[in-house]
Amino acid sequence: MADVGLGPMDLLLLAAAAALVGVDSVSWLQAMISRPIVAGTLGGALVGEPAAGFLVGAFLELFSFRHPPYGAARYPDVATASLIAGAGYAAAGGTGLGSLLLVIVAGWGIGWLGTRSVHLLRSLNTRLAADSAFLARKPGRIETRQRLGIVLDGFRAALLTASFTIPVALLATFANRATVDWQGVSVAGGLVVVGLAGVVGSGSRTIGGAFKLWPLLLVGAAAALTAVTLL
Fold first, then answer.
1. Is 185 helix (H, G, I), strand (E, B) or coil?
2. Residues 197-208 pLDDT 10s
C-alpha cells in the first residue's frame, strides 16, 4: 500500500468519509457533499492532494449532468465513485494525463456498480418494512428499521471505497509510467480533451433540453482537434 501512498489509516478515513457521502445522496442529510466535485475533492484532501481530487471530481460532475435524478431514472452512484477516483488519483501523485483519464473511466464504472448496490439495498429495505404486523405492535420498530437502512447505506458506500480505492490508485500509478507520445503529441492528453468536449456537449444538451446533441458534440470535437494540434 505504501507504493501508492495509502496506509491503513488513510483507508479508514476514506471509508468513513464515503459512508457520510453515500448517505448524503438520498438517505440522510442531503447537504450536497455527495456532488462529485465535492466528494472528489474530499477524497483527494484525505490523501493530501485536494487539487487532484478536485480535478477528477470536476470531470465526473460534468458526466453526471447527463443523468439527472428525475423520477425513476437510473443514474450512476457518482458520489462514492468520485471520492474513490479522487483519492486514487491523489495517491498516484495527482499528475499525469494518462492516470487522469483512467481514474475518470474507473470512477464512472464504479458509479454504475454502486448503483447496483443501491438497488440491492433498496430491495432489502423493502423486506425490512414489509412485516407490517410486527412493526404495528411497537411503532418504535419503524424508526429502528429506518435507522438500520441508513446505517446499511453508509456501510455499502464504505465497503465500495475499501474495495476499490487501492486498485484505482495502482492503475493510476501504472498509467503514469505508460504514457505514450505520438509525433510529439500526448495521446492521453488528446483523449482527455476529446472526453471533456464530449461530456460538456452531452451535459449541455441535458441542461438546455431544446439543444440537439450532435451539433454540440461536433463543436466539442472541433475544439478538441484544435487543442491537440496546438499541443
1. strand
2. 555 555 555 555
